[in-house]
C-alpha cells in the first residue's frame, strides 16, 4: 500500500477510519474531527508509541467513513468497535456474553426476559450486567412482586381458548390470556417494573403505599393485600441500600485499577443518594494506553449499549474527548449530563471506594487466573507424560460429530490453548459428502477439510512472506482429540497420513468408559479417575460435543420453521410471519374464518380463501 497516495485522498472531514491487515481483518478503529490530520499523525516520526508501531507493521489498507458531525463519528466508532472487536482497540470483555433484562414493550402484555444481546427493536433493555446469578435473582424477585406473565403466547386476541396456567393459580401472573386483568392495569405493573429496575425504590414504594391505602378505603381488600406484599418487598430492597451521597440525584461512579497487562473498571449505580447496584468489567487491549484513553473507551462502549443514562457521571480522571462524549450522552438522554472528575470532598471519597473495589476485584481475578493456569500446566505436563509426547501439547484441537439418524449431520472443532478454550478459533462444519449416520466417514471429511485448508493457507502466507500464526487455519495443533473410539481415530489417522501430517499426534476418547485410544495400539489407555490430564481431556471433549450439538439444533430449528404454511400457494415469508403473529399457532390459523384471515396485514380475500381451503 502506498501510504502517501492514500493520505492524499482522505478528506479533512469528521468521520471514522478503519485500519486493516493483509488478510483484510480490522485491527483498529478510530474517529476524528479531521480524518486527514488524524490518520496522517500515525505516520509522523515523533509518534512512535508501542501501539502505533505495531499498527504500522500490520497495516495494509485504510478505509474511512465520512460523517456530518464529530458526535456521529463517535457513535459510529462505538458500533464498529463492537462489531469488529479490533486487536488494538481497548475493549470491554466481550459484551455479547453479558446478560441484559429485556421488557418486551413492543408487544401486547409485555414480558420480562433475560437476553444476551440487544436488538434494534422497541423493547426496553436494562444492563449489561456481569453477574448472571444476580440477574436471575432480580427477575425472580420482580415476578414475585408483580404479576407479569412469562409465557410465549401471542395475546393479540384474548381470551384464549385454553385453561389458565399454574402461574395464574399461584398468583404469579394476572391472567391476561383469559382477560382477567385489563391492559391498563397490566401496563401499570410494567411501569412499576421499569421504575424498580431504574432503582427508584422510594418513588415506587410511596406510590404503592398510596394505592394500598385507597384500595383499603374502598374495601377492595384483595387488591390492598396484593399491594401490601409489593410494598414490603420494595421496602426490603430499600433497607439493603447504602446511603453514599448527600445529593439526591442519579449518579454513576466509574473507577479503574490495574497495569499494562490487566485492567478492571468498577461502576457504582447511585440513585437518589443510595447505592442500588454495582458492576465490574475487565478490559483487554489496554497495553500502554493512558488512563484518559481507557476511561474514554469504557464510557463510550458502556453507554452505547445501555438505555439509562444518569444526570451525573463521576470519573477518577479526565478522558479524551470529554466535551464531545458529554454532548453525545446529553443528546442520548434528552437532557444535560454532567461529567465530573472530583479532586476532594464527598465525591472524591466515593470515587476512592469505587477504585478500591476495582483493585480488589482485579486482584481476585488475577489470583483465580494464576490458580487455573497452574492447574492447567499440571494437567498438560501429565498428559505429555501419559501420551509419551516430545513436548507439552499447548494447542489441542478436538472434533465431534452430531446428527440424529443421519439427518442434518454436522461437525465441530474446538480449540484449547494452555488448557483454556480459544473461542475465536472454533469452527463448525456441515457434512457434505456423507449420507446416513456414518461417523467414521464424517470424521474423515471434516479432518481433511480442516487441514487441507490449513496447508493451502500456509502456502499462500509463505508466498506473501507472512508468518503462519497470522492465518485462520495455518496454525496446527500439538494434539488432535477425536470424540470416539478406535474407528473414529483410525479414520482421522488415515486422513492425516494422506495429507502428509502423520507427525501430528492424535488420540480418541470413548464416552462409555472414558478410555483413551492411541494410534497403533489395540488396548486403550485407562487414566486414573482423579487424573488432572483425564479431567482436561473430558472438558475439551464435552466442549466439542456442546458446540456440535448447538450447531445441530440451530440447523434443525431452521428446518422446522418451514412449517405447513410453506405448502400453501401464495403464502410467502412475509404473510407467513404475519399469520403466525396474528394467531400464534397453526392450530388457531386452521380454526380461523375467511373474514378473520382477511384482516391480517398483507392478506386479501383471495389468499384468505386459499388458506381456508387448504385446511378445510
TrEMBL record:
Assembly, per entry: Interacts with UvrB in an incision complex.
GO cellular component, as recorded: cytoplasm; excinuclease repair complex
Pfam families per the UniProt record, alphabetical: GIY-YIG, HHH_5, UVR, UvrC_RNaseH, UvrC_RNaseH_dom
GO molecular function, one term: DNA binding
Ranges of residues in domain UvrC family homology region profile: 253-496
Localization of this protein: Cytoplasm
CDD domains tied to this protein: GIY-YIG_UvrC_Cho
Segments forming domain UVR: 202-237
Annotated TM spans: none
Recorded name of the encoding gene: uvrC
Name of the molecule in the record: UvrABC system protein C
Annotated GIY-YIG domain residues: 12-90
Family, similarity comment: Belongs to the UvrC family.
KW Cytoplasm (keyword) present: yes
Keywords: Cytoplasm, DNA damage, DNA excision, DNA repair, Excision nuclease, SOS response
Biological function: The UvrABC repair system catalyzes the recognition and processing of DNA lesions. UvrC both incises the 5' and 3' sides of the lesion. The N-terminal half is responsible for the 3' incision and the C-terminal half is responsible for the 5' incision.
